[in-house]
Design brief:
By secondary structure, the protein is an alpha+beta fold. The protein is built from 7 helices and 13 strands. β11 and β12 form a beta hairpin.
């Protein structure tokens, strides 16, 4: 084990696409500044995989090694942004609000689904990447990234706790906001936005996800010409594979 590095926390993130003219829009949330991890940053909805997610995945998809990550991604999307993806029958706005309130109060996701006669479709999510930065003295997450198209007329609303804003934006526009100092992005989010900015549709993103191997990405520091760079491997679909360490936000 690297000195100062704790064991990774299993987590899942969902990149939700909404088709728009010119380029698809992605669902982003702004983390509350008080949050220990990525406070004030723009991120994709997501969070840690809970034991209840693992138990529910064993019932719904016992043979799927990513089952718990899929459950967590769908649950976090509902909790953080109020979007009910993969639920059938599709809940109305009032039921979505009740489900979110109960989840925030600690109710198990599986029990809520059973109580309201809802089923969960896990194959709505396509694996896109897996990141596990291992920086000393920082909280470490082993995160599965998924992509999916948004439900029709999906309404988004931040939960007002962990996230203070939820919005749709084109990848290139979000990157421009960060370049102009008007938004903050952690290293994995920036690299994924650069990859996503190349796509004109969800179909293109889906093809790209299927064309590249999903290997766990653990950035490393490499010194070159007197400058430290934070780097990731080539060949995994990312057009930019390094950033000056002094410019990279790593939490």
């Amino acid at each position: 084990m690297i000195a100062g590095v704790t064991e990774p926390i299993p987590a899942a993130t969902l990149i939700l696409f909404r088709e728009a003219e010119g380029a698809p829009e992605l669902l982003m949330v702004e983390r509350a500044r008080a949050m220990a991890f990525a406070g004030g940053a723009l991120v994709f909805p997501g969070g840690r995989i809970d034991p209840e997610d693992e138990a529910l995945a064993l019932r719904l998809a016992p043979g799927d090694p990513l089952g718990a990550a899929r459950v967590a991604a769908l649950r976090e999307l509902l909790e953080e942004a109020g979007v009910a993806l993969g639920l059938a029958p599709v809940p109305d706005a009032a039921l979505i609000a009740r489900l979110r309130d109960r989840l925030h109060g600690g109710a198990p996701f599986g029990a809520l689904l059973a109580e309201h006669g809802l089923s969960l479709t896990l194959d709505a999510l396509t694996p896109f990447a897996r990141w596990c930065p291992r920086h000393a003295n920082m909280r470490i997450f082993d995160t599965h990234f998924f992509i999916a198209p948004a439900p029709e007329d999906a309404r988004v609303e931040a939960d007002g706790g962990e996230s203070v804003r939820a919005f749709w934006g084109r990848a290139r526009d979000i990157l421009a906001e960060a370049e102009g100092g008007r938004a903050s992005l952690i290293f994995p989010t920036r690299r994924n936005l650069e990859r996503l900015a190349r796509f004109a549709s969800f179909a293109e993103a889906l093809a790209d996800a299927r064309a590249h191997p999903i290997e766990t990405i653990t950035p490393w520091i490499e010194r070159r010409d007197g400058i430290d760079y934070l780097r990731i491997p080539e060949g995994l679909g990312y057009p930019v594979t390094e950033e000056a360490l002094a410019d990279a936000r790593r939490d």
